[in-house]
Amino acid sequence: MPETKPLILLTGGTGYVGGRLLTALEQKGCRVRCLARNPEYLQPKVSGKTEVVAGDVLDANSLMSALEGADSAYYLVHSMGSERDFAAEERRAAENVVAAARSAGVRRIVYLSGLHPENAELSTHLASRTKVGEILIASGIET
Predict the structure, then answer these.
(1) Cα–Cα nearest to 93, from 121, 132, 66, 61
(2) What's the average model confidence in pLDDT over 101-119?
(3) Closest by alpha carbon to 76, among 124, 45, 42, 113?
(4) Would strands 31-36 and 7-11 be described as parallel, antiparallel, or unpaired?
(5) What was the pLDDT predicted at 81?
(6) How far is CA 23 from CA 27, 34, 69, 91, 140, in A?
(7) Backbone angles phi, psi at 113, to 5 degrees
(8) 24 confidence band (pLDDT: 50, 70, 90)
(9) Phi/psi of residue 18, each to 5°?
(10) Which residues 6+ apart lie within 8 Å of 45 measured at CB?
């Protein structure tokens, strides 16, 4: 009998928030696929029903197969650890995810950003997180 539960793609499953969300989704019996740059690191931490696939939000080609069949995607990654221009990398990653999600027919993207007063001067980090949110919202996919 084919699986009827919607498939959730989780990015950032090795992070603080993503790891806790992964546990909660598994406990609820959700059908989960995790995208990981290093799947061998994440694989021992997931239940036997959770699928772990190799990929990177900065590698557009790896996103196509990861998002195939997904109903929704949790976008919980950031590039602050990068030695390069993390804000540019975050924009590129968001654009890659949007393109692949559109192509795969993803219905919803869930994103965790930061709260800030309107018209406030933002740190580079918060400005980048805000820009990623704007890219995802502008995608036309429910965000």
Answers:
(1) 132
(2) 91
(3) 113
(4) parallel
(5) 57
(6) 6, 12, 21, 28, 29
(7) -110, -150
(8) very high
(9) -60, -40
(10) 14, 19, 22
Q: How far is CA 84 from the centre of its chain?
A: 20
Count of positions (residues) in the chain: 143
Q: Kindly compute the dihedral angle of the four CA atoms of residues 42, 45, 48, 53, in this order, to the nearest 10 degrees.
A: -10
What three-state secondary structure class fits 95?
A: helix
Return the beta strands (E) in the chain as ranges: 7-11, 31-36, 51-54, 70-75, 108-111
At 31-73, the pLDDT tens digits run 999 999 999 999 999 998 999 999 999 999 999 999 999 999 9
* Residue among 142, 55, 128 at smallest CA distance from 98: 142
Q: Is the pLDDT of residue 1 over 50?
A: no
